[in-house]
């Protein structure tokens, strides 16, 4: 669980709704990349209610998660790999 941070009114033009900060004291996968203590910063375009309504076991969600985002939505160094169960694409900055 992270800590939600509302954005100031000046950020309205960015399209972002809120920011979530997560402290990972043990890190996380992938090993050798993010397996050291660090803070994740997530910027959300959707509001919290829409994010909370996401059901990862819903077949419609799995179908959407398996699609690669358009190139314009990824940074040039963004690579994609399959999740552990092979059903979703996971982005990693290299």
Characterize the structure shown.
The chain is α+β, with helices and mostly antiparallel strands and 94 residues long. The protein has 2 domains: 1-53, no CATH class; 55-94, no CATH class. It has 2 helices and 5 strands. The chain has helices spanning 48-52, 59-65; strands spanning 3-6, 18-24, 38-44, 78-82, 89-93. The strands form 2 sheets. Strands 1-2-3 form a 3-stranded antiparallel β-sheet, with no helix packed on it. A two-stranded antiparallel ribbon has the order 4-5. Strand 4 (78-82) and strand 5 (89-93) form a beta hairpin. The longest helix is centred in the middle third of the chain and has 7 residues, at 59-65. The two termini are 25 Å apart.
Number of helices: 2
Distance between the termini: 25 Å
Q: Please estimate the helix content.
A: 10-25%
Q: What is the 3D form?
A: globular
Q: Roughly how many Å is the radius of gyration? A: 15 Å
Q: By helix and strand content, what is the structural category?
A: alpha+beta
Low-confidence stretches: none
């Amino acid at each position: 669980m992270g800590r939600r941070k509302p954005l100031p009114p000046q950020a309205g033009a960015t399209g972002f709704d809120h920011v979530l900060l997560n402290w990972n004291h043990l890190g996380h996968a992938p090993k050798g990349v993010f397996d050291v203590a660090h803070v994740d910063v997530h910027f959300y375009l959707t509001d919290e209610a829409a994010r909370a309504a996401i059901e990862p076991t819903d077949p419609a969600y799995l179908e959407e998660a398996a699609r690669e985002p358009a190139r314009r939505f990824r940074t040039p160094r963004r690579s994609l790999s399959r999740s552990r169960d092979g059903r979703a694409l996971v982005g990693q900055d290299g």
